Amino acid sequence: MPPTPAARRGALRSNRLMQIKTLAQRWWRRCACAAAAALALSACANEPAAVAGQAPHHRDSGFQNNYVEFSTPGLAAFMRWKFQAWRDGLPAPPASKTPAIVPDLGLIQTNAKAGVRMVPTVTWIGHATVLVQLGGLNVLTDPIFSNRASPLSFIGPERAQKPGLWLHELPHIDLVLISHNHYDHLDDDSVRALAKQAGGPPLFVVPLGLKAWFAKRDIARVVELDWWQSHRLGDVEIVLTPVQHWSGRSLTDRMDTLWGGFALFAPDLHLFFAGDTGYSKDFADIRERFAERHSAAQGGGFDIALLPIGGYEPRWFMQRQHVNPEEAVRIHRDLGAKASLGIHWGTFGLTDESLDEPPRQLAQARRSQAVADSAFFTLAIGQTRRLAPRRPRS
Ligand code: ZN
Ligand code: ZN
Predict the structure, then answer these.
(1) Which residues lie below 8 Å from residue 31, measured CB to CB, with a gap of 6+?
(2) Nearest ligand (C-alpha, residue 129)
(3) CATH among 3.40.50.1820, 3.40.50.970, 3.40.50.2300, 3.60.15.10 for 105-386
(4) Cα(182) to centroid(ligand 2), Å
């Protein structure tokens, strides 16, 4: 029996519906395939060329960060930054000079002679250079006493303030921490001078790959560490931690040597020194890693963190490598530090913010994140801050 017109219309409709459904399914499959292919491709592009049996930050091409696939911005980006800075007249000259005071050499030297009975102190010498006295040791972070942060003595970023202490005013330095090899953190003349100090060279603790740089200068008292490796000097344990940055002293050695922060554990003080860093989850990881020795019974978290607060503008260029004060306060909170000292500002004009802007931004960040003024402070160049010795609950 031939189908009725109504049945034919119904069959036609369901046929069309089937066709539409099939087309939709094909289209969806094609989209899904394309998406999968794109994902696979992007995974390939971002897939770390990890070295078999090594940690993921060890790559065939050098080292890499934990939470960002960092490649240094190319020449075009650099030129764009420099053009915009020139066009906008940046950095604006500071309204006031970076505060500087005459150092309390009496306190520093008496403290140095007291050995393990010393009062823990931090003295800001300028930029990322801090004299730390803890656990009976005199420690310097990223020492730079030169007039310029540059491979050349006559060109490059010049000091806005002289160092808080001159090399000859320092007590005998036991330990030097180098966070990475950028010129404002690894200064040839300063390292050579410290290696020749009276009483013998300090111990230089450096990230992987930097020992060769010291060997070329006949400096042998060097310990190289990978992330999370440690070394003990006297009563002080030194641990290199991950941070988010990069390395390079020329166009051909990018990421060839490692970078990092340092955790120092002394009976009287636990200190963290970040070197240079962008904001990342690394700081929550650091807190978790040391949670046991930072329990309330052990005396709580880091007594002091030395965190960078300068070198952050323009954000589109700097964000992945240098935190701004707002991010530095977040790091302070991520670490669970009892107090932080803002460093890496006011000394060398490396970026687009005014030399005197970081402390103002820091004050704003403290307010917006409800952090007390005394919990994240800055010092004048040359100023010493005594710190309360750590007391584990007995
Ligand atoms: Zn750097
Ligand atoms: Zn730096």
Answers:
(1) none
(2) 2
(3) 3.60.15.10
(4) 7
